Amino acid sequence: MITKEKNQALLQAEKYVENVYHSLQERNPHESEFLQAVKEIFDSLTPVLAANPKYIEENILERIVEPERLITFRVSWIDDNGQVQVNRGYRVQYNSALGPYKGGLRFHPSVNTSIIKFLGFEQIFKNSLTDQLIGGGKGGSDFDPKGKSDREIMRFCQAFMSELWKYIGADTDVPAGDIGVGAREVGYLYGQYKKLRGATEAGVLTGKRADFGGSLVRTEATGYGTVYFVDEMLKSNGHDFTGKTVVVSGSGNVSIYAIEKAHELGAKVVACSDSQGYVYDPEGINLETVKELKETDCQRISEYVSKHPHAEFCENCSDIWSIPCDIALPCATQNEINEEDAKNLVNNNVIAIGEGANMPSTLEAINVFLENNVLFAPAKAANAGGVAVSAFEMAQNSSRTYWSFEEADTKLHDTMKSIYQDCMESAEKYGQSGNLVMGANIAGFIKVADAIIEQGVV
């Protein structure tokens, strides 16, 4: 039973959230992805704000939604034809209450201010959930690596770092990779940073190759971590991966290693995709073929059927969610599952969703899953394995130590178990038992909000 005092506190919290969000809409009317990310978190916080009025008194929401710093810059570089090309570069240093800014760089034509701010805002709470001392940041460019030569990518990375280097550092802001930025790109970025700084500072970038300061398991971390988290969720509800049919969107780094770990746990992954379509293999996706196509030959996933003629290729990649499956792992990009896709998955009796990409489900899709009691692992919790191992890499660089694959993988597994437990406990504490969306948002928020208050007005 809700007492009069508690009801008043809830009403006050709801009004506060509504006012802050309305103001944010007015100030950022065209940043749809950013507003979506904020609303998803704000929708979870009313019970926390009602129980902890200090957050309202300290205007925490206003302070946490506004980046500490947003840097934009021109990136001029020369292509293989000798022509000067110009792209936009970005870095949002969103929140440093818990430590240096930490978040990846994304090179993709879709990158703009809204995308960078949504990713940076999500990163605050994702990083908080790992229990590592790292704040939230993100960056990137509208540069498209597809179709570019290695030399063009190198020259672009050097030009990008020539603008970014003055804003980053091992104890200030530590970028990593994201879509379009893998170990190759991180290597080029790091080489240019060393040249400009005149010093070797391995901790300034993570996602490096292991032979010059990278951590083992970093390549696998986001995909493995997503599956580890989903496995905990399944086990808590009387299921596991054994014998389950799985659909994984994407065929990049996250997708490949989510497929690999799902296979190891006894599942059969029957579909994966890229931007041009998806491949369906009822016998189970051959992971070695996918790795060869995407990691070695840089070819389209459609080439899979030339090696496995019993498989099917379909051009509309969004139709992948019409394939019946027990577990769906969206690992491609933001908003890839809409309300209709969610209904298709539910109608096909999906048991669980694990978000390997950042914000891959729309708010409407998430509501469909929750209303139909589908087990749902939200991105900021489920895909936190990547940044967790990035923090491990920072620790190894600082202490000049080197962990084995088994040691790093065990720490990753333990971290994902801990994140799952924190989310469950937070949801339970605030009357939302089993709701991992609420649990992840609340657990991540409280740590950051308390740190902001303890550090005063800065």
From TrEMBL:
All copies of domain Glutamate/phenylalanine/leucine/valine/L-tryptophan dehydrogenase C-terminal, residue ranges: 215-456
Alphabetized InterPro entries for the sequence: Aminoacid_DH-like_N_sf, Glu/Leu/Phe/Val/Trp_DH, Glu/Leu/Phe/Val/Trp_DH_C, Glu/Leu/Phe/Val/Trp_DH_dimer, Glu_DH, Glu_Leu_Phe_Val_DH, NAD(P)-bd_dom_sf, NAD_bind_Glu_DH
Positions with a binding annotation for NAD(+): T222, N253
Site feature (Important for catalysis) residues: D178
Binding of substrate, residues: K102, Q123, K126, G177, S390
Domain of life of the native organism: Bacteria
Assembly and interaction partners: Homohexamer.
Family: Belongs to the Glu/Leu/Phe/Val dehydrogenases family.
Protein name: Glutamate dehydrogenase
Organism of origin: Texcoconibacillus texcoconensis
